[in-house]
Amino acid sequence: MATRSLADKPSPDTPDAELASRAASGNTAAFELIMRRHNRTLFRTARAILRDDGEAEDALQEAYLQAYGALGEFRGDAKLSTWLARIVANQSLQRLRKRERRAQILPLQQPGAGEAGPEETADVKTDKGPEAAAQQSEMRRLLEKQIDTLPDAYRTVFMLRAVEELSVEETAQILGMPAATVRTRFFRARSLLREGLALKIDLACEDAFAFAGARCDRVVAFVLNHINAPEKT
């Protein structure tokens, strides 16, 4: 790869293909823009495979270093984002396979200092009490808030039918309405809840596993430091 340089800094709207060409010629400013442009998508790719923020970040850093060294091979047959995503996915899958192999080997080892025995290991895997309870509590609060947004007529029917688990007939008797009305309102209440919760999930997905700020800067700095480090003779 040609001499590393920050000169000829590209503009934010420079196309990916041109950025790749410049980065392949040693323009690290172009590669920095590539990283910042694709960081979130690529981090989410790694995170989806590894299900761990720290491992996903490490995989992304290594994938960027691999990609930087191979930019000369990029011919533009696919989009740069796709090419990068494949490298990230491969790096993540390699890490996942290594992790699975370690998990298979670990139970065969005798517990030593600082290592958990078989019973302790099993407890760690199955003891999800506090975390599961916290997640369940959060889900309950979300559902309660969404139930509160239902119109009065629908909310009452839903509470009696779904929360109190009363029958259609019991609910009809309590509210003094025909059973058919109870069924209709209960169906409508569930539809409104699904729509409301789906909207919240869609909005949350926009920010899920966000890759900005300090994390984005940390990955970029790590990769650039390795790229610009003096070569050992």
Would you kindly provide a written description of the structure presented here, covering whatever features stand out?
The protein has 233 residues and is mainly α. The protein has two domains: 16-109, Orthogonal Bundle (Rna Polymerase Sigma Factor, Chain: A); 129-207, Arc Repressor Mutant, subunit A, CATH 1.10.10. It is 73% helix and 0% strand. It has ten helices and no strands. The chain has helices at 16-24, 28-50, 53-70, 80-105, 118-126, 129-148, 152-163, 168-175, 179-207, 213-228. Helix 1 (16-24) crosses helix 2, helix 2 (28-50) packs across helix 4 (80-105) and helix 3 packs parallel to helix 10. The model is unreliable at 106-127 (pLDDT under 50).
